[in-house]
Design a protein that fits this description.
Bound molecules: 2,5-anhydro-1,6-di-O-phosphono-D-glucitol, manganese (II) ion
Low-confidence stretches: none
Distance between the termini: 60 Å
Shape: globular
CATH topology of the largest domain: Fructose-1,6-Bisphosphatase, Chain A, domain 1
Radius of gyration: 20 Å
Helix content: 25-40%
Strand content: 15-25%
CATH superfamily of the largest domain: Fructose-1,6-Bisphosphatase, subunit A, domain 1
Number of helices: 10
Order of helices and strands: HHEEHEEHEEHEEEEEHEHEHEEHH
Mean pLDDT: 94
Strand order of the largest sheet: 4-3-5-6-7-8-9-10
């Protein structure tokens, strides 16, 4: 079986101009993933579960494992010199790698070091999400904010690690999506899911229905549509929501389905972050034949304004995303009228 390392090197060989820098960068992500995986597996035995008592810039309480994963990925990305800076969910500002090698780095990386971290305490799957861009500023200098605020369509590569019943790394460099499963006895990722494609249609919808009353009208109508009996099976769709974006996304990618995080009463742009959650997963879903939208616009076409920007997120099987998008748009005027009544 082909290993992740062999696969990355094979892909590089297909590009005569490739310098090996992206290859090296991907392998530093692979290394950090193994370290984080090892420690997540020990959660409960060592003192790494629970909250730190500190909140990140977005007002969310940081878990011990959030900070641990952040440090491991940061160190791995700085070590090899391909990366000039990172943006992370757990860092207030962009992090610039100031060493000479760092300043010469060709890439910036945006990362959610631990996604679904509150699930660690209850032994539910969590993940890491990463997104890679070529810098726009000249090499040799410190990166600028503009290097990080590129639209998602310009990603060079993106992927995630899922620390689940088995640990997998799934990534794309824009030529399809491939998934690798870690053999824990060897610590080696093997190609197990070649050229992943999401079915055009699915029967799973994933959304936190606790927020139902605050959803846009079109989303409420779509949920009701999912709950109706559907001709093909005489059954409604199936609701599945883990509360770990990576896990919900991974299941829907394999089986077909839709993941939704709409605006809610308190979170007008939803909860998920454009740069290190939505963009990388949108890149992967498009590469797998699916779609990702904020209800009106393709996620990958949004020009980011700030590093921790949030967006509503509808992602998955193409026919399902098309359907919810058209319902959101149909009822958008009624939503606007309601909002202006309230204000
Ligand atoms: P993170 O742990 O990186 O902050 O992400 C949590 C996200 C995502 O994983 C999940 O889908 C979503 O938050 C769940 O939010 P709700 O609890 O509001 O449903
Ligand atoms: Mn997350
Ligand atoms: Mn996180």
């Amino acid at each position: 079986m082909k290993t992740l390392g062999e696969h990355i090197v094979d892909k590089q060989a297909e590009f005569p101009d490739a310098t090996g820098e992206l290859t090296s960068l991907l392998s530093s992500i692979k290394l950090a993933a193994k370290v984080v995986n090892r420690d997540i597996n020990k959660a409960g035995l060592v003192d790494i579960i629970g909250a730190t008592g500190v909140h990140n810039i977005q007002g969310e309480e940081q878990q011990k494992m959030d900070l641990f994963a952040n440090e491991k990925f940061k160190a791995a990305l700085e070590a090899r010199g391909e990366v000039c800076g990172i943006a992370s969910e757990e860092e207030d500002e962009i992090i610039v790698f100031h060493s000479e090698r760092g300043r010469n780095g060709k890439y910036v990386v945006l990362i959610d070091p631990l996604d679904g971290s509150s699930n660690i305490d209850v032994n539910v799957s969590v993940g890491t999400i990463f997104s890679i861009y070529r810098r726009l500023s000249a090499r040799g200098n410190a990166p600028t904010l503009e290097d990080f605020l590129q639209p998602g369509r310009d990603q060079v590569a993106a992927g995630y690690i899922i620390y689940g019943s088995s640990t997998m790394l799934v990534y794309s460099t824009g030529f399809g999506v491939n998934g690798f499963t870690c053999d824990p006895s060897l610590g080696v990722f093997y190609l197990s899911h070649e050229n992943m494609q999401i079915p055009e249609d699915g029967r799973i919808y994933s959304i936190n229905e606790g927020n139902y009353l605050a959803f846009p009208l079109g989303v409420k109508k779509y949920i009701k549509y999912c709950q109706e009996e559907h001709q093909e099976s005489d059954r409604p769709y199936t609701s599945r929501y883990i509360g770990s974006l990576v896990s919900d996304f991974h299941r829907n990618l394999l089986k077909g389905g839709i993941y939704m995080y709409p605006s809610t009463g308190t979170l007008k742009c939803g909860k998920l972050r454009l740069l290190y959650e939505c963009n990388p997963l949108a890149f992967l879903i498009e590469q797998a034949g699916g779609r990702a939208s904020n209800g009106f616009t393709r996620i990958l076409d949004i020009k980011p304004k700030e590093v921790h920007q949030r967006v509503p997120f509808y992602c998955g099987s193409v026919n399902m995303v098309n359907k919810v998008e058209s319902m959101i748009q149909t009822y958008a005027d009624q939503d606007k009228a309601k909002d202006s009544d309230v204000s």
